[in-house]
Amino acid sequence: MEKRRLGRSDLEVTVLTMGCWQAGKSQWTGVTDEDSIAAIRAAIDAGINFLDTAEGYGSGHSEEIVAQAIEGRRDEVLIATKVSPHNLTTEKVVESCENSLKRLNTDRIDLYQIHWPAGSWGGPQIPIDETMVALTKLVEQGKVRALGCSNFNGQQIEEALQHGRLDSLQPPYSLFFRPYEFDGTFKTCVDNGVGIIAYSPLAQGLLTGKFNKDNRPGENDNRSGNALFKGETYDKALAAVDALKPIAKKYGKSTGQLSLQWLLAQPGVTSVIVGARTAEQVKDNISAADFQISPEDLQEIDRIGRTVTDTLPEDKTNMWG
User: Fold this and answer.
1) What is the DSSP letter of 207?
2) C-alpha distances in angstroms, 223 versus 30, 181, 203, 291?
3) According to the CATH classification, is domain 3-208+257-291 in 3.20.20.100?
4) pTM to 2 decimal places
5) Does 57 qualify as catalytic in the annotation?
6) Separation of alpha carbons 46 and 9, rounded Å
């Protein structure tokens, strides 16, 4: 599988990243540890070398599952994890890192990311310089190889860069959700050598075509609070998926695979996070990396996507807020 350099780091990551949020189980139904381990191992077997988790996924359970899945194969993969917005003081950054290292059963974290800006989800307002200095010391100590952030806008990235180096931004980014592209955040990334790792690239499954007017996520599903699954936006999204089907068919791909490859063709994108509950789903995602879309079709896909993004407020940067 193709690899791309992440930011200015020495990390060469595959264009598809195995997302391990589901392995935490706290916000997902019907997920077993056995299936999660099998899915992660299937991803590695298929050539994916980049795994993404976080201390906040199931209070660390996802990290523990990753450790089990990669036992005996640590040198085959690069691990990305995250520190939560409640743990951004100097002391808590160090504590969180140590806890993640233990749960992951490793002596290094390849990419350590600030999961959300300070103040998010009820967390305290910690100055970014304090957090960045603490993170940089972890790099100097050899416990972390590269630093990144998630859910930051362009201004927040520029502020962080004044106090250290960032090699990645992990934003929600899909054909149906593109605020960071439209507000200049991605330009900030490109201008400063910050790689983009897109999460929720299938709009939490919406781009796969498995949903319809009579089939929406249940109340206990975390997707039920997603703006894309509500009102006019949901109706527009269903119509857009139907419009994508003829293009996908031309390439012998699914709408999901087409949507992933469209992302990989966007400026600044280094890798796309694909989540999977089972090994079979991993195999389906892998097929997104073995073809290219023509420039004309990329433009048409962009046009179709905008019929959905145009229904969202311009300042909408949180799918769930």
Assistant:
1) G
2) 14, 22, 9, 29
3) yes
4) 0.95
5) yes
6) 24
Residue 63 has pLDDT above 90, yes or no: yes
Tokens 């050598």 correspond to 193
DSSP annotation of 199: B
Question: CA geometry: angle at 44 spanning 19 and 141, to 5°?
Answer: 70
Taking every pair of Cα atoms in the chain, the longest distance, rounded to a whole number of angstroms, is 54
User: Which of 309, 91, 275 lies closest to 200, judged by CA?
Assistant: 275
Non-local CB neighbours of 158 within 8 Å, separated by 6+ positions:
188, 192
Tell me the C-alpha distance between 176 and 255, whole Å: 13
Q: Which of 57, 173, 180, 199 is catalytic?
A: 57
> Which residues partner with 50 through β-bridges?
78
List, for residues 196-242, the tens digit of each pLDDT value. Answer: 999 999 998 999 999 988 877 777 776 777 889 988 999 999 999 99
